[in-house]
Design goal:
One of its GO terms (biological process) is protein targeting to membrane. It is a multi-pass membrane protein. This is Palmitoyltransferase. There is one protein chain. This protein has about 375 residues and is α+β, with helices and mostly antiparallel strands. It folds into two domains: about 170 residues, no CATH class; about 130 residues, no CATH class. Helix content is about 55%, strand content about 10%. It has a four-stranded antiparallel beta sheet with strand order 1-8-9-12. The longest helix has about 40 residues. The radius of gyration is 25 Å and the shape is elongated. The C terminus is likely disordered. The structure holds zinc ion (ZN). The site of zinc ion has 6 residues, from strand 5.
């Protein structure tokens, strides 16, 4: 029942409610506020026209960005990976408490670090952030810049509506002592969306971008489920349990600039790059550097392969956190330590499960 609510009702019913609200806000702003109050009541023709034009422009920008987020930009689907070549030699990988790599049964694929399964997307997503019920879209590493841009312009739009609404409601109330109910509803809607979008924007900028962290990692940190890493130590592999404190700073480079670049990193060497370039991308409504669009279109056609994943720097543990893990190993400060020989690990990961073999046969 709960899964039906989550998988069907929320993604299908919420957008209909939101479209209704969108239409109502447009009616209240353009007709009740701009036309009836500003134009007919006060006779401010130029102000009325300017308000409607700016509102339409802001609505068009947010709609275009939503369309890009929902239909053009892939969140960063991870291509199913049945084998992890030479995994026993990699410095570290995400593992279960016994030192074996994690596996996603839905995708029939190994799950490397920072790859999470999204039930709404039906696939594993690299740096999966969250499923936004308001936008009905999955946010991952590849469409994150569009999500932030949309949040900024969404905030700008509601701020504009609120300012115009408050100016004229205040003006009409001081003279007539009466205010149209639609204008009060408009102010309430503005307050709600501004708090939501502004709060999300602040938490994303300060917390998630500032510490190279994602929403899903934040939620997982609060759950009793432990995070384990299989770490190479000489000729053995040891399982290191990552405690909550280290968990929230696992990818934090301790430099805002570097974290920012990690978050807005797109594909290998193609990225938004400097802070100035990302800020320009976010603040200029229809400015979309060719590499952003190109990356997204490319993403839609093919999922992130393990080679592309391995080349990404934003899925790797930061040097600072790696140093802490090494220290734990040196001090043998492992809350739960399962030591596994490399040979055994290789044997285990080389075994093909029947379902994997079936899948391969079907592909051929
Ligand atoms: Zn999956």
């Amino acid at each position: 029942m709960l899964s039906f609510l989550k998988r069907w009702v929320v993604p299908n019913v919420t957008p209909i409610l939101l479209i209704g609200l969108y239409g109502y806000v447009m009616y209240s702003f353009c007709h009740e506020l701009a036309y009836k109050l500003i134009y007919l009541h006060y006779g401010l023709r130029a102000f009325y026209l300017a308000a409607v034009v700016v509102y339409s422009l802001l609505a068009a920008i947010t709609l275009a960005l939503w369309f890009q987020l929902k239909f053009l930009a892939d969140p960063g689907t991870f291509a199913p990976q049945q084998h992890l070549d030479n995994i026993e030699q990699t410095p570290y990988f995400l593992s279960d408490p016994y030192g074996f790599p994690l596996f996603c049964s839905s995708c029939q694929s190994y799950k490397p670090l920072r790859v999470h399964h999204s039930t709404n997307h039906g696939r594993c997503v690299v740096k999966f952030d969250h499923f936004c019920i308001f936008l009905n879209a999955v946010v991952g590493y590849a469409n994150y810049p569009v999500f932030i841009k949309l949040l900024v312009w969404f905030t700008v739009k509601w701020l504009f509506v609120l300012i115009v609404d408050v100016i004229f409601v205040n003006r009409v109330f001081t003279v007539d002592r009466h205010v149209n109910i639609h204008l009060i509803a408009l102010a309430i809607a503005c307050g709600f969306w501004l708090m939501l979008a502004g709060g999300l924007l602040a938490s994303n900028l300060l917390k998630y971008i500032g510490a190279n962290f994602t929403t899903v990692e934040e939620i997982a940190k609060r759950k009793p489920l432990d995070l384990h890493l299989s770490v190479v130590d000489g000729s053995l592999r040891k399982v290191v349990k990552i405690d909550p404190d280290l968990r929230s700073s696992l990818f934090d480079t301790r430099s805002f600039k570097q974290n920012w670049n990690q978050v807005f990193y797109c594909y290998q060497d193609r990225k938004l790059g400097s802070i100035a370039r990302t800020v320009a991308y976010i603040l200029l409504p229809f400015f979309d550097p060719w590499f952003v669009t190109k990356t997204f279109v490319q993403n839609k056609r093919h999922a992130v392969t393990i080679w592309e994943y391995n080349a990404m720097s934003n899925v790797k543990i930061s040097d600072e956190s790696w140093e802490i893990i090494q220290q734990k190993l040196r001090l043998d400060d492992l809350s739960q330590c399962w030591v596994l020989s490399m040979m055994l690990l290789k044997e285990m990961t080389d075994l093909e499960s029947p379902s994997t073999a079936d899948l391969k046969q079907r592909q051929e």
